[in-house]
Amino acid sequence: MKLAVLTERRNGETRVAATPETVKKYVGLGLDVAIESGAGVASGFPDAAYAEAGATVAADAAAALSGAEIVLKVRAPLGADEGAVDELALIPRGALLIGTLGADAALAGAYAERGIEACSMELAPRITRAQSMDVLSSQANLAGYRAVIEGATAYDKGFPMMMTAAGTVPAANAFIMGAGVAGLQAIATARRLGGRVSATDVRPAAKEEIKSLGASFVGYEDEESKAAQTAGGYAKQLSAEFYAKQAEVVAAHIAKQDVVVCTALVQGRKAPTLVTAAMVASMKPGSVIVDIASDAGGNCAMTKPGELVVTDNGVKILGYTNWAGRLPAAASALYARNLLTFLTTFWDKDAKAPKLPEEDDIVKGVTLTRGGAVVHPSMKA
Hints:
By secondary structure, this protein is an alpha/beta fold. The protein has twelve helices and 19 strands. This is proton-translocating NAD(P)(+) transhydrogenase.
């Protein structure tokens, strides 16, 4: 059985879906691994390292995908109207495609039409068995770290308090908005850098998590916020009234902050706007807003996804996309292990092939298409 790994061609994507470490383990399972030449270069993995691990280095996407029965990707394959290479058309009928596919009903339908068995790993359920294959958590953890590092770099003063003979530089005030995986890592990183850290989140469990990391909690709490978390641990979309009251509390706090890191996401929806233009206008010149949610539209009203913006009052807004991809070696290593864990969990040793039982909760959660049909409830048109 052949497994193919492609070069990621989408703009700004630096990661790769397999590393030499995971390739060696795939070969150990009995798979023939083909990796497109140059696929790992941006992550620090040269072709020679893959060849040494047992992979065949293919000259292009067509060669890598020829006869492939398993295809690993970071992001969805490009279609005919998206790039010079129509990756989707090159994937053999019946192949198992695994990646963070960001699928909607139309894309799921395209996979089904081509007979591709598509698994979108960002849909994995938040259950104990799936933790080691949770691509959202592995990548968000790195994104939270990188956000604080870049925020500290953009900030025009030091992060820790520095006492010198010439005077004292006060510690930076860092405010983390959202205390999920990315937010908690951002809190920990900002604390390690010596900042005075505060954080907010609508989920009731987050308050104690924030405090346990040594940060102070900021936020509005009412009966609605007590039910602000899904069974899977994600934040729910709340009412406009709640967000208005939350905004009042945040507005008074944010004016005093030096670095604000926005991490709030609602699964499957545009990121909520938490920092308004008026809040940005109230901030001091030289302050920094880092918007990790920029891929989903951004938590700041003035974020321009993919860009660094400096406002009229001197506030820097870092709206870079693919934050985990700004640490490509680490992000690829963790992502590749997530995919390896998924495949080995459902590996049939006798058949030397993956076996995905339809009744399994993880399989049900990630499977978009099977047998030429869209099977995921949220993807059916």
